[in-house]
Records
---
Amino acid sequence: MPDWSRRRALHAAVSTAVAALAGCSGEASVSSSPTPAPDDARRVTDYELKQVRNADGVALFGRSDADEPTPTESTPGGVGAPSASTHLTGPEELSAFAFADVPQATALARFVRATDFETRSVYLYQRSIPACYDLRLVGVRRRSDSVTANFCRDLKPADVACERGDRDTVGVAVRLPFAGDGFSGHGTGLRGSCGGPGRAVGEGGGGS
Amino acid sequence: MTGEDRRGARLSRRGALAVGGAGLAALAGCAGVFDRGDDPPSYDASALAAAVEAETPRPPTAFPVSVPASMVERHRTRTRDLLDAVPEDPSVPNGVVTARLREQRRRVVESMAEDRSGEPPLDRLRSWRWLRAEAAKLRGVYRAATGDADGAAVADRRDGLRSDLAAFLDGWEYRGRDPVDAFAVHRRVERLVDRCRDPLESGSPFPAQPTDAVFRVGDLVGGLERAAAALADATALRDRYVGDGAPSRRAAVVAAADRLDAAVARADRAGGDAGGDGTPPFERDLENTPAQFLYDVASDLVERRRREMDEARERGHPATAAANAGTALAGVEARSAVAAAIRDGEYGRPADAARVKTERRRAETALTAAWDSGPATVTVPLARPAREEFASGVRRLRSELEEGSAPASVSATHVNWAIGSLAYAKHYARATPAAVDRLASTLRGAATDG
């Protein structure tokens, strides 16, 4: 079994539950560490982003040592892949995750594995989303011991074909410009609107 | 935050202030002091249900201007035309947009078929204005979703409506033969002007890619239709009322608003019902009593109405400002009566559920008397805070009784709140006739002076 500390295991479990509860309206922002003063949070701008979308709704990744659905299968009940997020701070943590055998998951895994964890860390996120909606990364914020990624969700353009009841899985990997030493928590925020398609207010950052 | 949430927040603040006198109250032996050793009681649900079973009384609907069927018919025809531009079973590539279009169309069709013959004429007009705007919103969404949205046409329509509104405002002299009737009619017109102005001032820019933002397009188009409908009704009501040769009453209404404002300020200062820091003029522990809520409502109304009076003036709406001044005047009087009653030990912990019924009967009697105390065109708007608080008390208790599986008892908090609301409705309604008389005489006096 990889060197997966109890603290980090708890951290990942909490984050998964919180991401699932974040819902589609309002803004949720949490961390497993005490919330610092707002002015302690700094915007991260020079990150690299990899975002993928699987139209079959499969889970793109999951803990290989956890009692979770096989990554290539969607969750029973039609609710789509389980939401999950983690802040990967080293290769030993990465080895605790298995990626599904679908092109989107492979692309995500390749991006994550290409990270130099001596100087970088990766925020990794997946979420089930209705097929007629887009998920966008709004921005990333860093505190002394935690990192938070904020997303928004918006309806796709009216002329894009999609079925109302279908669900896709969106996977996001954000390569952060700092190593993960000293970090003990992470959070995910999701708001129900980006202010109109094509108008998501980004806080800066790169993409790939 | 909902109104009730805000109220709850205020309640805590004022409750805390009032409770500050608890020690003194205990020494003074005031009636109604809550024994902290007891648990707050609960009350028999069936008795409470009987007390709030009847509907909140409806105000008389007298209005100096009749609403001809043609005014409603114009809205209906326009709504039908807008609806006909959207297929009965619309379909676009995005399944969520399709579902919303179908749902919205179904709702508009169902609402159009509702029987509105029992509604007061002005309420019926309002219903149709809303429906007309909903139909326009639907058409706007559909056009955007099918690539037919025309941003230039939307901009032209907005410019045209702004010009129409400016022309209307230029020729609006608050004309009327009777100054009190003129106040009532033009107050209604002021509200319609607000309905027209809001979407013209607050509309967001038309999206560069309408298919990407179909509901934003719908909101823009619906807002302009609402503005057009409101302006049409404002124009029709004004023109039907004014007639030939009626004098301008604008100066009289402005003067009346100013005089009443000064009267409110004097009464507020002289009342001594609340110190500048909001300290209550009594020493009594109000915790867990109807008095706690009652005093909060009584204090809040005066502040709120004076603020709304200032806002109406800033918008250039003297009739609304005068009406708010009238309600503030009644509110100051009601606050004095409430403070005196609390000082005398009233509105302590209710003995049983029958107290709700008693308070409701008293409030209803006072409200009816208030409506009958003068021309309904003045009594109804000035008595509105009483009816709203009456309805709020009844609604809150009903909602608690309907919560879950028909509770056998209701907690003291909800009963206290209901009694507080009904008691305020009573005190305010009793203060209304004097404010009505003051407003009417001030309007007539200002018209004579002018």
---
Amino acid sequence: MKQTPPGREERATDAQLVADTRNGNLDAFQQLVTRYQARLFGLCYRLLGRYHDAEDAAQEALLRAYRALDRYDPRRPFDRWLLTIAARCCVSMLRRRRSPEPQLERNRPAAEAHLPHNSPGPAAQAQAREFAQAVARAVAALPEPYRLPFVLFHQEEMTHEEIAQALDLPPGTVKSRVHRARKHLYRHLCDAGFLEEPL
Amino acid sequence: MTCDEAETLIQKELDGEELTQAERRALAAHLERCPRCSSLRTGLSRLVAAVKELPLPAAPEVDLARSAARALRRRRRRVRLAVGAGLAAAAAGLLLLLVLRPAGSRPARPPVGSTAPPPMASAPSAPTSAPPGAPGQPALNPEAALGWLETAWERAAARVAGTLPTVEVPLPPEETAWPDDLLQTADALRQLTREVGARILPFTTPKEETDRRNG
């Protein structure tokens, strides 16, 4: 196997490392992975919600990315490309779980029972923490068709077009699902007493 | 502006899209007189800000970079082993045909011939020994290991197919550090070659068999 030249590691751009990887240098690919593994795993964990599933999906995404490197367009940021592949892997994994896809309107978030009602903590810091925890639970409880676009848009900061590509949906559908997810979370947090909604 | 129109603009803002000056003015005017939409805008903004601040989960203990590189190397091997497996299947089928041949059509005992090029040795007798003349060979050379397996499968298949007079394979590299899948393949190969050696050696091609019968 080829070795990356000494001192090259710090200077190498993603495009250089991709080129080296295409020439069979697995060390170069390892460097690419090292750069993005935290984000990659974070995305998988946010979408899948299970640590080991996230690891598996991240691993699978890396292998898929490696196999697809010949089709990678160097003008596109490598991280966006990798994250799109990872999102696709997560979607595949979620489909394999064969869980029913609930409708947003008919389902209350599962975590609702654990959310405090009208019970903000005495300190602002505690309140903020409580709010963040409620938000995290509510996001996690969103039905998949809404949670995935929402998480990819707001937490991974992918564009509607990138999400559409990853989830195999029209961009308009992605946008409307993000909107509906926001509105649903807002109502849920209002009902739980974390946000105020005037009558 | 209606509340629905105001909500559309609020969502547009949260999508990161720029509002026109006219849209901004109209929305501001609506929010001043509509506490419901005003609360919606404040609440949604707070929600989105909180979502963006949610902490990333802790990085996995497994080093993805290393494990990915390992997985890639394993996958390369698997692809190559799949070639070997295909040959093995073909060899097994041919072996079965040969074993089922009438006993009279097979010679009695194996005078082991050797037409294969050196360095070679018969597979059943030397599966774990070091290659001759290579005492300082590294413990594991995956490429060499794969090369040995592929060559061995090819030769076993060729032997069964009758294009080689004996099963000859190069000595395998040091096996102690081989991954399990390679070891299993190597074991299967040994079993096959033992079968070939015990039942069929010496193999004669159909033409040789015809020549023998015709005296």
---
Amino acid sequence: MIGAFQTAFQLFLWGVLCLAFDRWGADREWRVLSTVGGGFATGAVVVFVSTLTFGGSATDAGVRAGAGLAFLFSGAVSVAALRPGGEGGGREAGRRRTAGRLLPAGGVFAASAVAGGIVASGLVRNGVTPAAWGELLLVVLTGVGILRLALVGEVHLPKVLAVTGNTLPVLAAALLLAMASAEIRLDLFAPLTMKVMKFLHDFVHQFFESMLIPDHLFFRRDAWDYIGLLFSNEVGFWGGLAIWFAPALLCVAATSRERLPSVAHVRQGAKRRTLLAGHLRARRGRLAVSWLAVVVLAVAVYQSRFPTVEYWNPEPVAVTAGPDGMIFIPFKKGEVDLNDGRLHKFLLTEGGTKVRFFVVRKPGGGYAVTLDACSICKPVGYGQAGDRVVCLYCRTLIPIETVGSTGGCNPVPVGFSAGGDGVRVSALQLATVWNETVQAVHRVPGRGR
Amino acid sequence: MRRLFSLLASRRVVPAIGGLFALFYIGLAFFRDEPFEALVGLTQRNVLLRCLPLLAALSMLARLCREAMRERARRRALRGGRVEEVAALFDEEIAIPGGETTAAPSWLTASGYRTTTFPGGVAATRGVPLFPVRSLWLLGFTCLFLGVFLSLAARNVDRAPLTVGEPLPPSLGVSGRVTGIEMLRLSRGIVLDRDLSVSVAFDGASGTVTRRFGLYPPGMAGGRFLYPRYLGVAPLVRFTAYDLPRESADYYLLFLYPPGREDSADIPGTHYRIRFRLLDGDSGDPFITGRFVFRFRIERDGREVAAGRVPSGGTWAGKGLTLAVPDVKKFVVTDFVRDFGVPLIWGALGLLFLAIVTFPPVRLFLPRREILLVAEKGEVRAFSRAEGKRRSHDGVFHELLDRLVAGGR
């Protein structure tokens, strides 16, 4: 049910994208139809073939890379749009370089292919089943049908809503990101926040060292608290937002700063005012398209933060250590079956510290025992979505196969022994690892690294 | 040469370089756990990448030069001087055949412009030019990129402990001896809570000169910044044990600061290891008061055989063991940094701050607006330019043109 809703939502955004493409190339309808429709169908089929050939993870990475490249391209276009039309200033007033030249049919085809790939990714969530091929055909036909409808409906849109070479890449990238964020595996906002947090942490650390700034020992507590804001989890979110919205907002700024064309040669004041009013109206239309991109990106952020995905997130089962300091978890006891492929959470209370950890059996065999926390994010814990675990704080997806490895947002692994009739974990080790990696890590320069 | 200059002064150069580094970072972020460190390392190793900040600095400098030349030419034109390609200096240009400029100065003055009349023309200006602020901005970025380049290309760091009573490390290239290390609590520090003072007696031709190095800004010796990294204490540990033939006595560099940290000293040639921990002093930070109390654990072959506490100047005895700490020296692990980029980057940040503070009031309240009328060959060429409040300026300009066409009525 959720999957159908996501596909419908993605197809709706695809419809908006089609309208934008149609408006941009309205005088070349047949080309729009063949390029955009062909791109969509190609992208969808490629995702199916790639999933069969390279597997779901590699295909997801490819689709995410496509959406990411569209975003980077939109960023480059929006920065270029900010530049005045000529170095001489206003003599080139009103004639700004646009990305029109940079966005030939190949770019439109690629963007359509990414859109098709995103929609198709939802169909192969559980692998390429025979039924999925039928769904693919249905989705491709629906996508092309939506494009045809958009071609018909586009003429009824107000003429003032102009899609230019500057606004099209930004709007297209925003729509692709929103489509991707509907599918948690393809979401780019959550990984972006993590990368931003990491970058800021590393940058400030490097800056302090490069500028020979003393260690935190010498700082006033309140001054250090302000600097410490740069190392908080929230800064990743806000920094991510700044980057996420940057292309669209730069596009808004570029459009707002566009100089009106010279009317100095017109000697009738009324005619001058009429001409200027016309240009202002046209500029407002272009601004509306840029603002639409901002709204679409906001939707993408909302979807990323509150995804419509059902997680397997069981209540932790309380455990205690035996006289030898070891916790014993039988392979099967009551409703808990460690061999069912799902993660099972446990709670140990040790000296006033509550330690959450989970055990999961990997698809390739063997178990992993990890804290229900990583060493980067707030210890909100993990859920399970299919063959991946999800950090419930930053929404990073981690294949279950790699759970038990260290680094990044992976849950912190804990030593254990499995054999006989269950899994054994040292309570002291659990408490120590929890205290050292989860509670003691403060993101300040030189600490917690 | 002219083409090279115009290429260098292009506004695309710096965003292109920034974009390139951003792409490198994004690429590294996919494959490395520490992408920023990897990018810095890659840039330091690769000559081409290392030169990109220098290229950015040169580009900013070229832009500054070009803007300065344009500003100078525009001012000359507004004073009635001969300037080639005047039109390129203004936003708009229009020719009015047979126009009359005699009434223009009084009308422009009434509109709030300061007018200058010269043979064959009129110039009207209003507001403050943004050029000085732009200069600060461009110069700031020039210094910033140059500082980054120097830092990447020529930073050299030697790390060594500075211990009271010990000579300076030979790598510093100057001879001297550390005479004291003091930590002071700052009662009125805005950012820093404590200061560190390292006194060094330098041997010179005219005798010994004592200099004091503070925490920030970092002092320089032998062309290197002294950057204190970690504090520690070096207690003189006298240790005897029932199974040892003689007393062991030596100084040990222990990283025990801040209090609570643990470090250990292996007694050479024995099975003993002593783990030390510095206790919080009753009368304040021990590094400030100079009164150190150690909690210790003595291990033999990894097994704890005794534990206790001993103050500096005190002795502990028991279980056939004695531990005395008759003296404690302070030490600071210091980076001796040769980096000519640091002052440039600080200077750049100052310049950029000044530019950011001065830009809004100038741009919002006193933007520069200019009108130039030049009568030649039976026509009046009118030029206009505005750095802000463009709409109202255009209104004045257009009305002026209407009046010129109407013959000054």
